[in-house]
Amino acid sequence: MHSNHLIELAKARYSCRNYDARPVEQEKLDLILEAGRVAPSAVNFQPWH
After folding, report:
1. What does the domain layout of the chain look like in residue ranges?
2. Whose CA is closest to 36, among 25, 10, 28?
3. CA geometry: angle at 24 spanning 26 and 29, to 5°?
4. Tell me, what's the pLDDT at 33?
5. d(CA 31, CA 49)
6. How far is residue 19's CA from residue 24's CA, in Å, rounded to a whole number?
């Protein structure tokens, strides 16, 4: 990954302050949870255990 790409990502980030009341589909929730489950942790600390 190029440093320019990281800079652009940092510039494009934002904090969401307004949320939609519509429910999130279970399929999307499952995908998000799976991504968190397989994501690396610092020094394999795994604080969720």
Report:
1. 5-44
2. 28
3. 45
4. 94
5. 20
6. 12
Residue type, 41: S
Distance CA 8, CA 1 (A): 12
Tell me which DSSP letter residue 47 carries: T
pLDDT interval class at 49 (50, 70, 90): low
| Spatial distance between the Cα atoms of 33 and 25, rounded to a whole number of angstroms | 13
In the numeric block, the tokens 């929730």 are attached to: 29
Per-residue model confidence as pLDDT tens digits over 11-48: 998 888 888 999 999 999 999 999 988 888 887 777 76
DSSP 25: P
